[in-house]
Amino acid sequence: MMNKGKFYITTAIAYTSRKPHIGNSYEIVLTDAIARYKRLVGYDVFFLTGTDEHGQKIEEYAKSAGVTPKEYVDRVAGEIQAICDTLNTTYDKFIRTTDDYHEACVQKIFKKLYDKGDIYKSEYEGLYCTPCESFWTEAQLVDGKCPDCGREVKKAKEEAYFLRLSKYQKQLEEYIEANENFIYPESRKKEMLNNFIKPGLQDLCVSRTSFKWGIPVSFDEKHVVYVWIDALSNYITALGYDPDGSGELYKKYWPADVHIIGKDIVRFHTIYWPIMLMALGEELPKQVYGHPWLLFGEDKMSKSKGNVIYADELSKLIGVDATRYYLLSEMPHANDGSISYSTIIERFNSDLANTLGNLVNRTVAMTNKYFDGVIMSPDCPEALDDELKAFALETVKTVDSKISTYHMADAVEAVINLAKRCNKYIDETAPWVLAKDEANKARLGTVLYNLLEGIRYIAVLVSPFMPDTSKAILEQINCGIADYDSLAAFGALESGNKVGAATPLFARIDAEKFMADIEAQQKAAQENEKSYEETVKDDRKAEIEGIAKIGIEDFMKVDLRVAKITDCEGVKRAKKLLKLTLDDGTGTPRTVASGIAKWYKPEDLIGKSVIVVSNLKPAVLCGVESQGMILAADCSEDDVKVIFVDGIPAGSKVR
Fold it and tell me: Which residues, other chains included, contact 497 with Cβ-Cβ below 8 Å and sequence gap of 6+?
């Protein structure tokens, strides 16, 4: 396959205040589907996601929970990344704005803009919304409240640094007018130009003194860098941007091909961010796509309304691929989408179980029944076959066109429509009737070949949306031809191979049982609900007071062994993790993922002996199966030391 060049795609980074609900998770699935498709068709993709971890809200949440802000964001960032992994997303990097390299670069960016005169010190006085961390004028309020979230505002005044948005207003306006697809869709572009840019840009507050949880301004440490420069710059710091000289990754992938963001933050990404880049002398991203929201029925999801659904919990009920499918198929291109339990059941049973699952199951079953599983050559074609072939080839074009313009629901629908056309072809050709007459055997073989090839098309095209389902389909038809180029002409499926066993892809949902399970889940959640701050407080209390006491018989169940580290490397998806290969005296290497990368380099550990908890159940962390845990000590708030036991033979039991 020809390399079509680079494609750099990003999500907005998630704010680490709470576990994200399924509406937030839509964005990571959408972006992953686009990234997977671009890789499929031949692009060199870099896919970035991550977390936004500074600000007054975090400082207040952490204080309420009785923990440090870093402890608070570590926990929530872990939940966010775990959901990304649960949803089978293929991000190349997960950035956290508390990463050392990011913080150092943000300080350099701030200093460069200050030295240029694009940032200056002044004083801000206005009406401040703490949840949104935004100042507003009286005229901007809606019914006297914050125009973004509808909450109360309060008068505030403080010294601050400002970014000269006004200096770049004309340049930005001209850029947007000259690049028609920079803000997408068109409705968002009109909104930004007419409502925000053309009326006149006010200089932007980019530092704060009223809280401390942020990146200090290097030359004025009573100020911390405010969210705009801190969070938005992640798109370039993740690639190794440096005002003093950027790395190869940045030179290769920047500018971004598209920022995938929610419609509520289009203003920040199409006004503040481009002006920051203009001031730095860097290229602007090629496109910003502001997607709509996913609502519960007609309402925005919120915990207070009791209508929050979490992606990981839904995945447990219907499966990861079905969750991905539902999110992508239910969200329109420009208008808000709606999630409800009834539509989840309807789409699952209709599209996945009946249309797609039934097609694969009965086609594989008929191939096994009539030809002992052997895929026959299509030696007996008829005009009817050409219609199916043309439909399959046209579906390839439709999917490409729809994904290229981010009409994901239409792209998903196109694949399901191909499955429907294959089912119609079964009705038209009636293989069970052909099977009754030996004279029709060649025609029957051709019909089943065409169906299996149509199913192969579906498997390839559905892979960005439902990757595991795609693999399962290809496995059932016993086909390894899954590259995009193979869809250029109908007929790449190799005859003579044998299909696998016909196994149902999706079991129909029993609506009554499903709703009963949901009701029980919600009732249990209400009875046992505890705020995040309370949970953290309880964890900290248990840690301090040692209330989780155990007896000697419980302690004796823990198997501690000495193991020698024979190899060590970083984990691609997690900056905090190191992958350790251990010799524990059994003769079989043991792999352990340990969150000690901040304090140790791989070369510091190879050859060292450690104590490993050897009878923990294995757990998969960022793609690494961890078969234990090594012992380490918290020496201070931000200092961890591994317990080394060099000189003791590997496999020795620690009592």
Answer: 374, 375, 478, 479
